[in-house]
Amino acid sequence: ALARPARPELLAPAGDWECARAAVENGADAIYFGLERFNARMRAKNFTQADLPALMKFLHHRGVRGYVTFNTLVFTAELPDAESYLRTIIAAGVDAAIVDDNGKEVPHGESGKLVIRTPWPSMLRTIYGDKTRYKKQYWSEVKGCYFTGDGARRDKDGYFWIVGRIDDVLNVAGHRLGTAEVESAIVGHDSAAEAAVVGRPDEIKGQGVVAFVVLKEGHAASKELAEKIRSHVAKAIGPIAKPDEIRFAEALPKTRSGKIMRRLLKQIAAGVQITGDTTTLEDLSVLTRLSKNGE
After folding, report:
1. Residue 255 near residue 265 (C-beta atoms within 8 A)
2. Residue 142 — φ and ψ, nearest 5°?
């Protein structure tokens, strides 16, 4: 459970520097960033993935705790060292666990499916007009448990690490890799502003790792830079996570709400024709440029 700080708290949109600075000046002890509006606020503020650790470091150096709340306030990402923003704690009253395919809880350090074993406030209770889909989507994967759709692991200190959506977890040579972990490692490189990682079919490894990377201003795409980023990922996570291919892009295909359309990136990475609905894309020209770059 989170301890209530002695000084005021503030619930703020993620990526809002002005809001964070104002809160610090007003004596806030903790700031909670709402992840639901994260992408939209980042885009509006010209704020990228790579800036989040810097924002957390700003708070950390001033003795202010930073958190990111998500999954309807079930999980809260604590940022005690200004860097580990994938590490999470569980909100009070929520009984979460990490289980295997058979529903058995896995030991600390092992990855599995993130489930919630008992009801909690603000939980999703149905899908309007489609109760059958609700039951199938959230209650059929692990018997008697609510399945969040996320893959996760738990460290020795009891913290939960969200690996990524189960459908975004790659199986590379028998190893489960979360796209979020690889993306986090990529934007940890000085040149990378934003990244999206997807899998593509690979005859030997099952799935290969393809990274679409948007560079910061002042950095030019090159084979040498791609190799440096690949080596950076290998050092941060391990050789198995080293991207097989890095594709530099001016921008990533996103919906108007700021969500990256990974389905389209998977098709581009696999070299197949793009199919499916693209009407929610914010900028169709991004997709066109990415497709041409892959030819």
Report:
1. no
2. -130, 115
